[in-house]
Amino acid sequence: MTIASMFSRRPAPMIGIDISPSSAKLVELSNDRSSTLTLDRCAIEPLGRGWINDGNIEKFDEVVDALRRLVTKSGTKAKQVAMALPASVVISKRIILPSGLSEREMELQVESEANQYIPFSLDEVSLDFCVAGPSATSAGDIDVVIAASRKEKVEDRQGLAESAGLTPVVIDVESYASRLAAGRIIERLPGGGEDAVIALFEVGATTSTLQALRNDELLYERDQIFGGAQLTQMLVRQYGFTLEEAEAKKRAGELPDDFGAVVLRPYVESLAQEIERALKFFFTSTPHHKVDYVLLAGGTAGLLGLTEAVTKHTTFPCHVVNPFEGMEIGRAVREKKMLREAPSYLTACGLAMRRFLR
């Protein structure tokens, strides 16, 4: 330990808020001097249908009110927040640059390269980059990841945070944040997950995303139009509920006695088939022909029988993601409720982890 480390400033408290079409999720983390993470707070607030559509905020005031309720529900006192944009509104590109450039030289090079890939004037976009590490294909050079989005998309997220009384300090990409949180889980796999090919599925309300990963490298990414909304629609058709009633009963677990046999089982089978189909696209689009693990996240990931159905259809071991695995659990967290909802918090957890990477 050096004298400087004894007096170093700890990162200011910062919450991660993930906004999806169906809900907003909040996570607050802290760590001790040994870098052990503690889950201090987590909360979920449902959003109305159509408030968020294809990443666009259609009902700004309603979403702001929901964020205020979310913050109050969580009990956090933190004001700084990390939020994220969906990958569909972000252009990402990995480029190779010479090592040893100054920060200003790198900025100029990135802007020059970005002009080739971004179909807008640079005045119209928010642009950022990070050094990913030494290039695997060009000795002595470095890999740099560029991310750019239209300024209005970034300003929409900033406006939400500020209108809810928060201070936005990080605007990330949802898929980047989920990979950051998943990295902790992968490290806990046998052999630290080294060289393992991981299929990370996030099942959202209307869209499910597959990210295939190996050693922190993204091998493949694909969205499919299938998610938890299909289960809601099956409830509506089977029992005559309104969409709002079906969502409420699904969240509360107040479902008819025959729900498991006539609704849940067929839905789980359909979802497992969609996951199998997504993996086949991965195998036909890349040199890979198998994965070592399938990891499931999202609000429907913990459905009874889903991991078994996925293993049956794909032949690969399947696990539900708990992004808080291995963390200390704070006194303000209702542990049983958190464990039920944990797969929903993957992206929010990754955003909260950004507190320690700034």
Count of individual beta strands: 16
Task: Please give the order of strands in the largest beta sheet.
Answer: 10-6-1-2-3-16
What percentage of amino acids are in beta strands?
25-35%
Oligomeric state? single chain
Describe this structure in words.
The protein is an alpha/beta fold. It is 37% helix and 28% strand. The protein is built from 11 helices and 16 strands. Strands 10-6-1-2-3-16 form a 6-stranded mixed beta sheet, sandwiched between helices. Strands 13-12-11-14-15 form a 5-stranded mixed beta sheet, sandwiched between helices. Strand 11 and strand 12 (208-214) form a beta hairpin. The longest helix has 27 residues, at 259-285. The chain is globular and about 65 Å long.
What's the quick description here?
Helix content is 37%, strand content 28%. By secondary structure, it is α/β, with parallel strands linked by helices.
Walk me through the topology.
Layout: H1 3-6, E1 14-19, E2 23-31, E3 37-46, E4 52-53, E5 56-57, H2 60-74, E6 80-85, E7 91-98, H3 103-117, E8 125-134, E9 141-150, H4 151-163, E10 167-173, H5 174-187, E11 198-203, E12 208-214, E13 217-224, H6 228-239, H7 243-252, H8 259-285, E14 293-297, H9 306-314, E15 318-320, E16 328-329, H10 335-341, H11 346-353
Parallel strand pairs: 1-6, 3-16, 6-10, 11-14, 14-15
Antiparallel strand pairs: 1-2, 2-3, 4-5, 7-9, 8-9, 11-12, 12-13
